[in-house]
Write a structure and sequence with these properties.
By secondary structure, the protein is mainly β. The chain is about 5% helix and about 40% strand. It contains 1 helix and 9 strands, in the order H-E-E-E-E-E-E-E-E-E. The strands form 3 sheets. It has a 5-stranded antiparallel beta sheet with strand order 3-2-1-4-7, with no helix packed on it. A two-stranded antiparallel ribbon has the order 5-6. It has a two-stranded antiparallel sheet with strand order 8-9. A hairpin with a 2-residue loop joins strand 5 and strand 6. The protein is globular, with a radius of gyration of 14 Å.
Length: about 110
């Protein structure tokens, strides 16, 4: 359990995926470039490759991300955030996508 004050520290932001590519020598990892309406897109590494046989279907999607995590190096690639997604033990999977009226850069309140 975390306190409400701890939860308030988490920055949740809508971001539009502008490109996606596989991380070399990593079956599960994708390198996403995400537009948060900042100076330039952020690189986010996510372990979702197995759910997207055609990773280009991710391009253009607006999803929810944690955007105030410390950068983390994963397989030599720096990740500057974390994608929100859900999966079940039986293999169901879903990205957390806001409706079409929410623009990139919108923060959860």
């Amino acid at each position: 359990m975390i306190t409400f004050d701890d939860f308030k520290k988490i920055e949740i932001t809508a971001g539009r995926i502008v490109s996606a590519e596989k991380v070399p020598d990593a079956d599960k990892l994708l390198k996403l470039m995400v537009d948060f309406k900042e100076e330039s897109p952020r690189q986010i590494i996510s372990g979702i490759a197995m759910y997207f046989p055609d990773i280009q279907t991710l391009v253009g999607k607006t999803c929810m991300f944690v955007t105030n995590l410390e950068p983390r190096t994963i397989r030599g690639e720096v990740s500057n955030g974390m994608l929100f997604a859900l999966s079940t033990d039986d293999g169901a999977f879903s990205l957390l996508e806001p409706n079409d009226t929410i623009p990139p850069g919108t923060k959860a309140k």
